[in-house]
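for the writeup, i need someone to sanity check this before i put it in the appendix. the sequnce is what the collaborator sent (i think, or maybe the updated version? ugh). structure was predicted straight from it, no edits. if anything looks off just tell me and ill rerun, i have time this weekend
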Amino acid sequence: MSTAEELERKLDSFFEMVEQIKKNIYKPSAVESERVDRPLNAIGDIGSLWHAHTTKIAITFKPPVAIKAACQCIEDCSNLVAPLAAAYMGMSDEKDGVLIRQETRSRIYDLLSVQLQFVKELKAVPKDQDSEKSGSSNSTLVSVGEVWEMCNKLKELPKLSLAKLVQAKLSEYSKMIQDGLQDLKDWLEDPDAADFDFGDENSDSEEDNEHNDTNETTTNEDTIKLGERWADKLVKLEFLYRSISKRRCTLLSTETLNTIYTQVDELSGLIDDLVCSFLDKNDCSEIQELSDTVDTKVKSIVDLVILKNQDDQFVKWVDLFNKNFYS
């Protein structure tokens, strides 16, 4: 007969298993995993089963806890962890696409995170069979809804639209451009302002600061002009992202969508470096070199969205974009 001690052991084992997968899911695996047939469908099915087992767990843990049934429910849900990890580990960027794989990993990670919290709450439930001593079940229901929600996210994976994912990412990167643009505008208001003070308790003495002040140089005029150009170009680039999202994502092939995501992701890092190079008062020649690299990356993205035999309003707009962006 199952006992409260056995139930605690099963909860501990479940927790450790989930925690281990959660810790390793973002780490590159040295061992190539066997690919599961139609991994997104497999993960979606696991999400459905996980949802059902979570419902049963919530019912069996309602005081007084049904120890035997609870043990079986925890074991059934525990048995889904390894297949879930295996289905994801067998995915690859080449066969499934970078963005789809990343989104799958993110959703699995979110499920594992809320599941850990749910198990903690289950462990806190009194296992005494006396209902008067068992208290309320409210604590067990705090995370159960979150687990259901994450399970539903897994169930959606087989029907996931890559185009919509790319559109969402373009929106995220547009906001990052806005942040970079604001930083650049702030710098342009006073290019010679002192660097940010991070409140370091071990900062230089007043004598050292006075010495540093005497060595400060004014920002090169060419650097300021380049910064002004990029303040204007970032506005145009953000509009390019919105135009691609609205007018091209649903027309592009899976391969092109994956490539666009990869290119835009790389461009985001380059733009961050470019803005920081202004703020850090780098040499103008270094900033110009990075500027040229960003220009080249933007061109590669534009080339991807110009469809063959497609002469619509978007193509005419891109011609105008190129003329203004590179002038």
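The chain is about 70% helix and 0% strand. The domain at 3-130+138-159 is CATH 1.20.1420.10 (A middle domain of Talin 1).
thx in advance!!
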